[in-house]
Amino acid sequence: MTFSKSKFVSLLLITGLCLCLAVSLSIYIYHTQQKELESHFEEHTQQILASLQREIDFNEFQNKEMRVGEMVERSLDFLTRKAINLYLYDESAAPAKRFLYAHQINPDNSQPVLQKTKYLHVSNHVWSIIFVADPQYLAQEVSRDHWKIFGIGLLLTALIVLNLAQRISRTEEIEKQVVLRTRELAEANEDLMRFNRITVGRELKMIELKQEINELMKSLGQKPRYEIKE
């Protein structure tokens, strides 16, 4: 399958355009999902914060001793399937006593996907809560649609390019046939014109000879032998 230079360049441009569209759409979907991920994470951290605040308020109202670990775990009951790590610190305490509690889904994870810090006012203390989403959270909240779109885009690009290549190849083949048939027609027409010139010349020569014979017959006092139509 061969193409002329101009058509090959056109095919490359169309291929590049299709690939750019597929990549652009995939990137757009990916960034949209990243924004949705951040929005969901913010929503989940706010829910945890509100639940923990209710636990603290309830304990203060009941004048109960605050068992931080129990309060945190109860606050996370509704998010047991979400891969969110939580680290609780008392910012008002001495540095050695600031750490209060840690809820870890994957303690060995060193590459958090998202991280947010929130604050709570508890009596005369300020608690900081660090929420960390690990890769499992990404798998739970974000689909792989951008890869699907990219794959579909590549497949469509391949189909479009293949179809265009076939069309271009067929067009060039037809153009070659047109050129060949045009050349054959011109040659046939030239042969016909040559034959026509020969035939017409022969007819004129015959008429000229007949006229000469008639003239000779007249000079002999005889009737013309041939009847020549004007």
Give the helix proportion (percent range): 55-70%
By helix and strand content, what is the structural category? alpha+beta
- What is the spatial order of strands in the main beta sheet? 2-1-4-3
**How large a portion of the residues is in β-strands, by DSSP E?**
5-15%
The counted number of beta strands is 4
The mean pLDDT is: 76
Question: How far apart, in Å, are the first and last alpha carbons?
Answer: 62 Å
Computed over alpha carbons, the radius of gyration is 47 Å
Order of helices and strands: HHEEEEHH
Work out the helix count.
Answer: 4
Low-confidence stretches: none
Oligomer: single chain
In short:
The chain has helices at 5-62, 68-75, 135-141, 145-219, and strands spanning 84-90, 99-103, 114-122, 125-133. It is an alpha+beta fold.
